[in-house]
Amino acid sequence: MKRKITLKDIARELEVSISTVSKALKNSEEIGRDTKEKIQAFAKLYNYRPNNIALSLKNKRTKNIGVVIPDIVHYFFTTVFRGIEKYANQKGYNVIVCVSDESFDKEVINTELLANGSIDGFIMSLSAETQQKMDFHHLLEITEQGIPLVLFDRADDHVPCDKVILNDTEISYQAVNKFLANGRKHIALVTTESYFNVSAKRAEGYEAALSEAGIPIDPALKLILPYRDINENEIRQFFAATKIDAVLCVNEIFAVQCMAIVQKMGLKIPEDISFIGFTDGILSKFVQPTLTTIAQHGERMGEISAQMLIERIEIEMDVEKPYRTEIVEATIIERESTVN
Amino acid sequence: MKRKITLKDIARELEVSISTVSKALKNSEEIGRDTKEKIQAFAKLYNYRPNNIALSLKNKRTKNIGVVIPDIVHYFFTTVFRGIEKYANQKGYNVIVCVSDESFDKEVINTELLANGSIDGFIMSLSAETQQKMDFHHLLEITEQGIPLVLFDRADDHVPCDKVILNDTEISYQAVNKFLANGRKHIALVTTESYFNVSAKRAEGYEAALSEAGIPIDPALKLILPYRDINENEIRQFFAATKIDAVLCVNEIFAVQCMAIVQKMGLKIPEDISFIGFTDGILSKFVQPTLTTIAQHGERMGEISAQMLIERIEIEMDVEKPYRTEIVEATIIERESTVN
DNA sequence: ATGATTTACGAAAACGGTTTCGTGTTGATA
DNA sequence: TATCAACACGAAACCGTTTTCGTAAATCAT
Known about the structure:
homodimer; Rossmann fold; 3 domains; six-stranded parallel β-sheet; 45% helix; DNA-binding
């Protein structure tokens, strides 16, 4: 087993000082030709690489960024992650991932752990519980310590930091208008609890479009589902109880599950009932009929998040830079679940 | 902005030495009651936390593990990752993720970067290109440096290390036997290039079952698809050319795509043609008809991988411990694409 | 009162680098 | 020959910890 070689090893072996070795390997003008060549050759031979940890300690820069997300087995988050990882890697950063599992405590523990020097900055999307409790003390601590933070998608106005979010309200408004243009009158919304910021904004867009069309908001047309352990019967009852000819769902899974159920109830998609979901994931493309979805452009969101974060990391500390909120424009991808 | 406080800060403020502070915070018997209490109170007040980087340098332990996988927007890999992350986190380890994007070069660069002190061990699944080139020098370097390595799923016998793999051959054998038991005679295999180790093993099980049943292996019943950019026509031609009444697919996507195409060709599933895919992901559950799949138990694989890795990390270096290969037993999840 | 133990703390090395500054040697210049 | 700059290198500080060892003062036994 060949242990990693250090500057000290090279110095001892070549009978020079550690500083000489360090300088020689950086090709410093200070060191003579012969010595430099000798040291460089030796280093190459023994495949010397500087120790990252030592560098981090010295430079106060880890070249790591921390990503804290609620879930990893989740299409949208993985696409965002891919964007982050690609950009970060290209800029020489590594990515440490922690999964909060929608739990406030895990989110707190993970951030506090990483904040003790392990990373240069955070990219996060808030856990369900954090949004519900509206407790952001851990995030405020982070920013107060001067650690850059970017929130994406599930952000909150109470946290002063850079953000990357979707134009949720606007795109929902557009989606509902699309239903209206197709002559749909009984448009339902299938969503999650409203403490999810994004759900609230999507509901807002939904309601705005209806109001604008002079259609009253009917509570019977709104179904709130838990984000896990969905009860099929609840969905069945919802669709049985009221006449519905179009449905906007705040995610892909809700849409696909609803579609399967209404199909079993004998309805035709899109003739009798039309669907639009959020998250242009794998399901939307392969389910029957294929699902019209709102593409959130996760990879792009990740890229922008990483870019904003790294920019802030690498800026001089004394430069004042106001926080920005970048808005990514969603796109409606038309498929078979809506008529053109 | 409150910068992070260090031992030195506390020492200066309280007019004691750094060593005294360090010892007091570890509740050492060496330090007097009063001094200890004073220091501990001060540390609590200013929320002192030791710097992870400094600890890593001192202890030669980063408490980080590196995970290198070919793709992250991929159901199986994310479930494995979830297993890794859960177990690692619970053991106090963080996880650095690098995505090789099926590229040999990226895999090499990422591993070499992380190997310079950033992590205590690796968990990897080989990129397509690495398997094709059969070039494992970067992995050998890692193990020669004494850095623990666990390969999961896409492993290779040429790399001496711990491994966690699926009983691919056996479960494919069982799947084909299931088709045979249902009276299917023309059983196809839809797979990837054979340099994918797992595909080769799955083909082996497929062929073994057929041979045992006295059915000759017909090359026309084997379709090799690229792992991205699938051409639909190729699939259509394949199914048009030969009589096929059952199909084993080495992944979920292949299965779902084939199913959509044969349905368009007018075939009924499972009456006319039956399907079994690998990876019990989200698609299998929601596609119509639902897909019978082979569950790879990714989360469990991840957990085992993390456990094996951390065990080896924490073992005394001088203890000889032979490499193990842990085999995870797949399970066939029956759904509508096969008859019972 | 003297020597031996405790007690309670500090100095310093170590982890593996970078970087500033100092210094002995060389050759050129006045 | 005396002065001086350039050259080539080393010593040491520093990043933030932990830990070994040394030691002054206080306590104890004799």
